[in-house]
Amino acid sequence: MVPLINSANCQVAGFVVATVGWILTTTSMGLVEWRVWYVENSALLPPGLVCVGMWKVCVYHQVSDHSKATLCQRYGYRTAYLPLDIRVSQSLLLIASILGLLGRASIIFALRNAYLGVVRGNTNFNPLVTSGILNLASGVCISIAVVWNYHSVMSEQGISFPPSLSIPFKPNTQEIGSAFLVACLAAFMMLLSGLIFLSHKFSAATQVHPQTSDM
């Protein structure tokens, strides 16, 4: 019974990490501050701030000392003016969210077995390993989106927004925003949870089947 309890405690810790990572993943998808553009006064746009997200772009500029004007435009998969990195990152983050959700469902099943004392035989489906693989895959998808976004910002790549938005192709300066940091933390936690599940399973397997030396 003690090994089962210790196993369940490790699984609970991994479940908490995976849950927080999944919440951060879905949160980062909705945030608009993936790229922060600083635009100076121009013929197209007054001085202000442009935040480019995965699903929408928002333009902020000062109207008076006490008010700001905000214009947001949503876009989707088939938006023609989006660069390749944003369109691919949209898919990667959606896939990461789905994989993370499936990983949580798998570890809930494993926790149920651990707390009920259910010992499964040698089957093709192991919820602990499955959850670890799903979470690792989710973390990899988020990491690719994060690295690609970072590269686009550091190389100062532009976006051909439609004329109705009056946004220049490139800003005067641009930097990564808070959504990028949230996604980085999400990727770390998803990768960590996957490693927790897989390493714990490997450790348990070596304890059940210890190596013996010939006498």
Question: Can you tag this structure with a few keywords?
Answer:
alpha+beta, 4 helices, elongated, Butyryl-CoA Dehydrogenase, subunit A, domain 3, 215 residues, 5-stranded antiparallel beta sheet
Can you put this structure into words, describing what you see?
The chain is an alpha+beta fold. It has a domain of 142 residues: Butyryl-CoA Dehydrogenase, subunit A, domain 3 (Up-down Bundle). Helices cover 56% and strands 13% of the residues. The protein is built from four helices and five strands. The longest helix is centred in the middle third of the chain and has 33 residues. It is elongated, with a radius of gyration of 23 Å.
Distance between the termini: 32 Å
The strand count comes to 5
CATH topology of the domain at 2-31 and 76-160 and 176-202: Butyryl-CoA Dehydrogenase, subunit A, domain 3
SSE succession = HEEEEHHEH
β-strand amount: 5-15%
Please give the CATH architecture of the domain at 2-31 and 76-160 and 176-202.
Answer: Up-down Bundle
Overall pLDDT = 82
Radius of gyration: 23 Å
For the report, how would you describe the main beta sheet?
5 strands, antiparallel
- Derived structural class: alpha+beta
Put simply, the count of helices is 4
pLDDT < 50 runs, ≥5 residues: 1-5
Helix content: 55-70%
Largest sheet: spatial strand order:
4-3-2-1-5
